[in-house]
Amino acid sequence: MLVSAEKAMPEAQKPPVFDPADPLGIDDLLSEDDLAIRTTVRAWTADRVLPRVAEWYEAGELPEVRELARELGALGALGMSLTGYGCAGASAVQYGLACLELEAADSGIRSLVSVQGSLAMYAIHRFGSEEQKRQWLPRMAAGEAIGCFGLTEPDHGSDPSAMRTRARRDGTDWLLSGRKMWITNGSVASVAVVWARTEEGVRGFLVPTDAPGFSAPEIRHKWSLRASITSELVLDDVRLPADAVLPGATGLRGPLSCLSHARYGIVWGAMGAARTCFETALDYAKQREQFDRPIGGFQLTQAKLADMALELHKGILLAHHLGRRMDAGRIRPEQISFGKLNNTREALEICRTARTILGANGISLEYPVMRHATNLESVLTYEGTVEMHQLVLGKALTGLDAFR
Description:
Cofactor: FAD
CATH class of the largest domain: Mainly Alpha
GO molecular function: fatty-acyl-CoA binding; flavin adenine dinucleotide binding; glutaryl-CoA dehydrogenase activity
Strand order of the largest sheet: 3-6-7-10
Largest sheet: 4 strands, mixed
Order of helices and strands: HHHHEEHHHEEEEEEEEHEEHHHH
Strand content: 15-25%
Protein name: Acyl-CoA dehydrogenase
Pfam family, one: Acyl-CoA_dh_N
Number of domains: 3
Organism: Streptomyces sulfonofaciens
């Protein structure tokens, strides 16, 4: 006699109730520590970011950046996956979960953390001298000192090998001249990690922002990442001592490895923005009535929600997979490009679809959808445009270099 699979299944093996917030049961892959970190960061954003972020975004400012940095330092979120020097030593997956929760609040807040930890602190931790690490990392981990990372230039974004910023020797000192553009945290930083061309190749320098000849005018009139501080760095014969250079990095591999670490955080973070927009659209669809019933009951709306859920949770699974590979020491830059390309592209599409479900309300700051969508327009192209990551993967697949 045949019986249904469900009837034949022992009581203890029956599947759990379907959870719309976690339809694939991804939380089963997380440890208690992982979940605790996620809960802590989510609670902090609910208390400190969500009540004010629409106001910050509308004003185009982040007025409490130093206070927020110290609070994030107290949480252990700055340089989170680094070890020693006051850093938390968390796993890559735990760092990713934090990035997801931060960007679920706003991409600008996640950018503050990413630039501090994955770019500035990571560069010092990996390439700095012991003296440089002791001087900067503990204060940066605590949020007492903010860092920025100067690689992109006004005329050279995707092609850093063409940078014009120069560092030349003057006795035992260095003189730095040039400009960097689109630098997160630039005007509030205490130290700038600046990459410049030298006779020996591209080198990294730790530039105290109070050094004569250094300035960081803030970039205004942005329509994206408005709750984030973005600056230009101007270096006019900034004199630095010999020990300002990062001794462990010569050539572009140094800054590019920092970018890979930061891109990994974006793989997770983009899914945070997407999750907020999906959850907003789902809640709205169950409450908004047209033609005498909730719009969530119409086939076209349900098709949109189903497709959004598919891409959201596939993206989270991809981020989790890459995190496990990073924790195992088996991650490759091409795999991070895979994640960054897919998740930013799909996150933006989720936000755009959510906007259509909300209709006219989708453009209002009373809802987070348009804010996340405009932020993701920047996240889509910074730290590697769509086209550059496509070419990274194209080269990996074919063995042929199409960059030039």
